[in-house]
Design goal:
This protein is an alpha/beta fold. It contains 6 helices and 18 strands.
Length: about 300
Amino acid sequence: MAELVTDPVLMVGEGWDGYRLIDSGHGRKLESFGPYSFIRPEPQAMWTPRLDSWDAQGEFIPGSDEDGGGRWDLSRDVPQDGWELSWGEARFTAQPTPFRHLQFFPDMAPVWDWMGEQLAGQDSAETLNLFGYTGVGSLALSRYGQVTHVDASKKSVAQARENAALSGLEERPIRWLVDDAAKFTAREVRRGRRYDGIILDPPKFGRGPKNETWRLEEGLPALLSDSRKLLDADSRFLFLTVYAVRMSSLALAGLVDELFRDMPGTVEHGDLAVRETGEGGRLLPTAIFARWSNSQ
């Protein structure tokens, strides 16, 4: 029976050459993505910035309401076609998008490290990356064996393939699939498939390739239930992240705990955060997570 750890865990991204959190406060954050700095909205940064002024090549100006989109105000210095960054052996293109991020989620770096720790010593593991986006997580997993990368966006999967080529890893055993994550997972259950690890990064709201509607609160329980059926007592992990919701990580852990009660291992929950580079190393929370791990 999996043990539920009720005390929350903090997974902190310390930044690297390709990404730094420079400062935050008054509902915004200043970050560097390689040679360029950007200002983005951040509602959880309720404190006062450390720095008196921010110098950036771009700023995302939010819309008039919480889900109202927005626009980028960019200087001419920012390459329109993006620029190359790296994390470990993965190379990828960073570029401002209409969704206020830059083609990858830097706060996921400690998650990528954690997954590698769970798979240490393996070279034939089979892992599943649902809502895989532009593929940095899939490239990180590919050093341990075969990866199935699923995303409903044809454009995102194409970008993931390009990132694999940019990294010189296009020969790695990665299946790149444009598909609805929930429907794909249900089909995998019917096929009797199993995986050594699964990572899920579902949006609050989204649409599948055939205009299927996804709402987190409605769809997550069934998706997690099917994901659990793709794991067995020899599997290593499941990692779930959730952004921009009014929900506790303990709620996610309760759902995972219910589904994994017949399994060995441990269920944990907590926050993802990024550490500022300045004095004091202030932590900015970015997402909540729940995870199941099974040390062998």
